[in-house]
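Reminder to self: C-alpha cells first, then the designed residues, so the page reads top to bottom the way the pipeline ran.
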C-alpha cells in the first residue's frame, strides 16, 4: 500500500474505535513519507488521547 492508503486505513480504523491499529497505520504512512504532516498529526493526537485515558 502507498502512504495515502495507509493514512486512509488509519482514518477508517479511528471510525471503528480501533485506535492502536490506527496509530500503526499512520506510522506506516509516515515511514513511506516522513513529510506527511496529516499522518503525523493524527498519530500524535491518538497517542495523546491514549495517554489521557491512562490518567
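Designed residues (55 positions):
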Amino acid at each position: 500500500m502507498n502512504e495515502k492508503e495507509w493514512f486512509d486505513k488509519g482514518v477508517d480504523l479511528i471510525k471503528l474505535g480501533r485506535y492502536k491499529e490506527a496509530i500503526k497505520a499512520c506510522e506506516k504512512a509516515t515511514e513511506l513519507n516522513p513529510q506527511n504532516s496529516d499522518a503525523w498529526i493524527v498519530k500524535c493526537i491518538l497517542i495523546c488521547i491514549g495517554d489521557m485515558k491512562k490518567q
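The chain has a mean pLDDT of 92.
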